[in-house]
Each structure stands twice: as structure tokens, then as C-alpha cells.
Amino acid sequence: MSRKQYERGISYDDQRNVYYLYMDLGRDEDGRRLRQYRTFPTLTAARKARNEFLAKKAQAEAIIPVDMTLDQWLDVWMEEIIIPNRAETTVYGYRKIIVNHLSPAMGHIPLQKVSPKDLQRYYAELMREKGLSANTVRRHHDLLSAALHAALRQDLIPRCPTERVEPPRVIPKETRYYTSENLKRLYQLVEGHWLEVVVHLAGSLGLRREEICGLRWESVDFQLRKIHIRAARTVAGARVIDKETKNRSSARVLHMGDDIYRLLRQERGRQNEHRLAMGPAWPNSGLVAVDKSGVPFSPNSLSLAFTKFIRSHDELPPLTLHGLRHTFATVASAQGAPLFDIGKALGHSTPATTGRIYTHLVDQLHTATLDKVAQALK
């Protein structure tokens, strides 16, 4: 090979008829020099790439050194960026990750010296020594990526180390659901139980538990048989938080079938009776999901009560309360409802979201489509 220096950082290979660009990337964490070579068919292309590289390198070298640890930056990031712009539940989740894991493991490292090697080691230790799942560790990576990209945008670091690591691969959770026969049997067993309304709202309308807890009587239109989903009650640690629905598409209007209409009418009457009996002692929260004393249920209490109910009936397969939402989607699909309409009823932002969560529905639709084509060709 005959390669000759042509000009600064560029050499020419007259046998292969290409230009080589040499880029000095500095040194790695162990002091070894990092080099990169690229080839170009023309001198103009090589010069353009060299100038872009040198400009980026000069910008990185212009970063002013700051005496700040990762911990200190995370404090600033939380106070100035996350708390003003994120839901309280998101803030709570981020703080748990930072306090319980990030600060003890990496908080002492200077912000400008956080390396891909530090991050890769951190992920491995979380999974190997602390037994965290790949999906949980991926949330740590997403937090770090958001925080360090914010530092990059503010010119506090020359590049974002999360861009040069291999984060844990997200493992899709198994979607558990009932068949229509299972759901019918559940409806029979829960009849007369205080969970009956909750079970029907989840199984027949696909409501999230937070949406059931946040549903108010003012959002139930008995005259038009419509239910307006526009609020939610969720938890952050031991606190119950009232908030808007998960996203804009989660705010939706659903039709009340005969069973839902009847059950909500009965529940409204029951609550009115208790309110009259208790007088001023009745909390009058305006919520649908309350106990006999008018105290609103928390999302966790509904989940625990439902799980206990299922376990007490051996004939029913194990299922979570959220599994009833999956059941609604599965039964609706079996009845021929398009994936788009199912997603709208569930409050998904796009049909792609529905397809990603309910891959078994996509598989069923794909199989049915191929069967129809095969049948048409007979």
C-alpha cells in the first residue's frame, strides 16, 4: 500500500485511490491514545470532514472546568428542570433512584469525569450484585441519559457518556389476560361484592386503576350514558395524588352499556343512603370508588383487594387488576374490533402503542388475515 501524507491529518492512497482522514480523539480513562481513521473518495469530502471534526474538538476543549460532582448536578437538574416540568409521581421515582442507588455508587465522581466505563460498571453491579431486573436498570440509564444530556446542552460536559454505553435491553413483560369465559365467571363470582363496580369498569371499559380511583360522579352522565375519563388518582410512596389523566389521549368519553349503567346507578344510590345516614361525617369526595364510610380507595388498595379476591377463588387463573384492562382489549379484538378503536377506548396515544403492548392481538389479526386470503384463493 502506498499512502502518502497529503496535508494536515489527510493522506492519500494512490493504489486504492482514496483519501484517509486521521482524527486524534485524545486519551481514554487508562491513558491510551484514541485514534480514528475514515476514508473519502475526494479531497473535498476529506477536508470537509476534517474541518467539522476540528470544530467539534475545539468546542469540546472550550468547555470551562467546573468543580461539580454528579451528585451536585443531579440536585440542580432535579430542582431546576425536573420538579417544575414533571408530574409528582415522576419526581418521586427519580428521587428514589438517585437516593437509593446513584448517589451511593457514583455521586462522588466529578461531573466532567463521568465516563462510559463508570456507567457500564454501574449497570452491571445493579444487575449482578443488587439483583435488579434489566427493565429496572434501563430506567436508571434513561434518568442518567436525560440528566447528562441536560448538562451537555448547558456546556458543562464536552459529550454525553450515555451515548457510548450498552444499556440493558428492555424485556417485554408478559401480558396476562382472561378469556371471555373467564371474565364471565369472574362477573358471576364478584356479584354483590364491593369490588363489582371496579371489576366491571376495568373489564368492560378497560379503565386503568388510577382512572377508576379518579372517576367522579360529575363525569358520569346517566342521561346520555357517557363516562368522561379526565382525572386519575395515583400514588407516590405513601401519598395519594390527584392529577390529570396519563396523557392527552387518555382523556376520553366512553359509552355505558346496560351492566355498567345498572351498577353505577346502584352504587350512586348506595352512597346516597350512607351519606344521609352519616350526615356531616360523610366525606363527600365526589368520587365513585369509595368505601361504605365514603373514604376514597387508593389504587394500591384496589389492586391488593382484587388479588386477594382472585386467590380466594381457585377456579380463576391468577390475574392482576391491570390484567382486566388487557382482558378488555383481548375480548374486544376477538369480537372483531379494529386495533385503532381498541386503542382509542384504552386511551393510547397511537395505534403503535396498542400494537406494542398487545402483540398477541397483532399476531391474531395477522393470522386471521392470512387465513382469509387463503380461503379466498381456494
Structural account:
The protein has 378 residues and is an alpha+beta fold. The protein has three domains: 3-61, no CATH class; 70-164, Orthogonal Bundle (DNA polymerase, domain 1), CATH 1.10.150; 180-370, hpI Integrase, Chain A, CATH 1.10.443.10. Helix content is 51%, strand content 13%. It is built from 14 helices and nine strands. A four-stranded antiparallel sheet has the order 1-2-3-4, covered by helices on one side. The chain has a three-stranded antiparallel sheet with strand order 5-6-9, with no helix packed on it. Helix 4 runs antiparallel to helix 5, helix 7 (196-205) packs antiparallel against helix 9 and helix 7 crosses helix 11. 22% of the residues are buried. The model has no long low-confidence stretch (mean pLDDT 87).
